[in-house]
Amino acid sequence: MNLSTLMRPSAWIPLAMSFAALCIVIGHLALFGHAREIDEGPAAHLFQGLIALQVPIVAFFAIKWLKRRPLEAWMVLALQALAIAAACAPVWYFQL
C-alpha cells in the first residue's frame, strides 16, 4: 500500500487542524482548569472554527480521492475522524 495520498494537503491539513484544536483545549485546561465559564472565550471560538473548517477540506478530499484510491482514502478519512474525536474528547469529558 502506498501512503502518498496522506502527503496531499487535503489529507494532512485536517489532521494538523485537529492537533491544533487539541492543543488549544489542553492549553486552556492547563491554564484555567475545567470550570464552566459564563461566556465562551477565544479558546472556544478557535476550537469551534478549527473543527468546523475541516468539513469542506475533508469533503474535498473524499470527493477527489475516494474514486482514485479508495483503500488509501478510507484509511486517511478514518485517521481524520480519529483526530477529530481525539480533539473533541476532552471537551466532552470535562463538559466544556
Please describe what this structure looks like.
By secondary structure, this protein is an all-alpha fold. Helices cover 75% and strands 0% of the residues. The protein has one domain. The radius of gyration is 15 Å and the shape is elongated.
Topology diagram in text:
Elements: H1 9-32, H2 42-65, H3 70-93
Short note summarizing the structure:
75% of the residues lie in helices and 0% in strands. It is mostly helical and 96 residues long.
Report strand %.
under 5%
Could you give a short account of the major beta sheet? none
Radius of gyration: 15 Å
**What's the count of strands?**
0
Count of helices? 3
Mean pLDDT: 92
Structural class: mainly alpha
List keywords for this structure.
single chain, 96 residues, mainly alpha, 75% helix
